[in-house]
# Entry
Amino acid sequence: MPAGHTGETPVLRSSVSLALSDYDYPLPEELIASRPLPNRQDSRMMVLHRSKQRIEHRRFAELPLFLEAGDLLVLNNTRVVNARRFSDDGKIEFLFLERLGVARWKSLVRPGRKMRVGAQTSINSVAVRVEEVCPEGERILLLEREIDPWEGGMIPLPPYLGRQGDAQDLERYQTVYARMPGAVAAPTAGLHFTEEMLSILPHTFVTLHVGAGTFQPVKVENISEHRMHREPFSISERAATAIDAAKRIVAIGTTTVRVLESAGRDPKGRLVAQEGATDIFIHPPMQIRHVDGLLTNFHLPRSTLLMLVSAMAGREFLLTAYEEAIRERYRFYSYGDCMLIV
# Structure
C-alpha cells in the first residue's frame, strides 16, 4: 500500500471492550447523506493504515493505488428487491422478507398492533392473514392465493433516511453489479463502484442477501449476548477458486466479510463452493482470519456493523477515525463516503 497521503493522523492502538456504550459516538444529523452524489465514484475515502496506526484522506477514485499484484476484490452481488408494500386501504405497511412456501411469507408489519394473529387485510385485492407472530416481531402471512408481493413494490430504504424510495433510488440504491435478487438492504460499500472502475480491478463475487435484521439495534449492554439474524449466502466454484488463489483479499463491505468468515473450508483450509446461511456476529476481540483489507461505509453508533469494523481496525483506532471524519465533514451511512482499512 502506498505511503503517500494528504493529512496523516497518528493514533494509539486499540483496546477491547464488550460494553455497548463503548461503541457509541455523537453524529451531527446534517452529516447523514440522504441522497447519493451525482456520480458514484466521487465519494471521499478515508484510509486507515492498521500497522502504522495512521489515517489519511483520499478519494474513492484512488482505490487502485492501494492495491498490489495478487490482490482480489470480493464483492456481494445481491440485488435489493422492491419488498415494501402497503395494504389496499393504505393503513398497513409490509416489508416482505422471505417466501416460506406457496402463498406464505415472512414479513415485517407496521403498525404491529393492528396485525395480531388472525388479523386480515388485502394487497391488490388478495386477502392477507396473519398466521403467526415470531419472537422477533416478524409476521408469518398467508395470502389468499399465490402472488409475488415484490412485484410492484417499492425499494425499502433504511429507516434513518426518513423518506420513501423514489425513481432515483431504484438505480442508485443498487450496485452496478447487482445480479441476485433477494436483499432488503443494499451492500452499500459497493455503491461507489462504476462499471469502469470494476473493469480495471481483479475481482470476484459472492452473494449474501441482506435481511432487515441489519437495522435491528443491539439491546444488551454486553454485546457478546446479542444474537444476529440469519442470512442466506452462496459461493460459486469460480469464486472459491479465485479467492484461494489470491495473495490478499480485499472485502467490499461487511456482508462480504461475514460470508468469508462463515464459509466452510476443506481439510486443507481451501474455500469450497457452497450455499448456506450465517448468523455470525463479528466483534472485538474476535480475529478476522480470511480478509486482509476492507472497504466499508461509515456506520451507525452502537450497530453490529460498527462492531465488525472495530474487529478489523481496532475499536479506539476506528472511533478516532470517526471523530476525524466528523471534523472533516465526511458524509455518513448508506449514501455516504467510504473507508478503506488496510
